[in-house]
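Continuing the batch. This is chain 6 of the set; chains 1 through 5 are on the previous pages. Same settings as before, nothing changed between runs. Recording input and output for traceability.
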Amino acid sequence: MIPISEGFPGVAKAGQENRSTLLSILALEVHGLSCLEGCLRLGENREEKACASWCKMGVFPRSISLILFLAIGCSSASAKDLALVSNKSNEVQSVSLADLAKICKGQLSRWPDGKPVTFVMLDPESAEMKPVLQRVYETNADQVKALITTANHGRSSHPAIIVVSSDEALVQKVASLPGAVGLVDVYSITGGIAVLRVASKLPLEPGYPLHGN
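Output for chain 6:
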């Protein structure tokens, strides 16, 4: 994962000096508020001036805010969440759990804008995929491998499902392939991809269906 200090000048310092304020701003932004609106919501918070000063650096796009929120906040979570990430050209912002299952099984061929759907995943036998096998595929690794072979039959030029060896490779593939989505550890999210809601929830939110074991 890209360290907080890389690509976002001043973020690491601000995170150390005003951790609670920064988390508050980013949490509010994830829920649709701008940085300045977040400051106002903090009301009489004793760090409001620090918040206002931070916002003068510019209002973060929501995708960057989410990355920072996850990067700073997820270390406090007792278990890792898997994030559904997407190529930035994808116009979809949220998918239902039922549609996620179709995507993972290669049963959804195109997005509403016509782009072909490609699901990028880790090896079904990897430990990271265990919650996906349990909650999305509802079967074992061998059955998922057979499903991948079937889904990709006749689609050699544009496979429905691509298996990669690492989170880093997954993120790179999703970032470079229009229409691609994948499930990745929240610690591996970068600014080159978008994060989609699953069942109207983002990673780390209560009720998120892909919370790790």
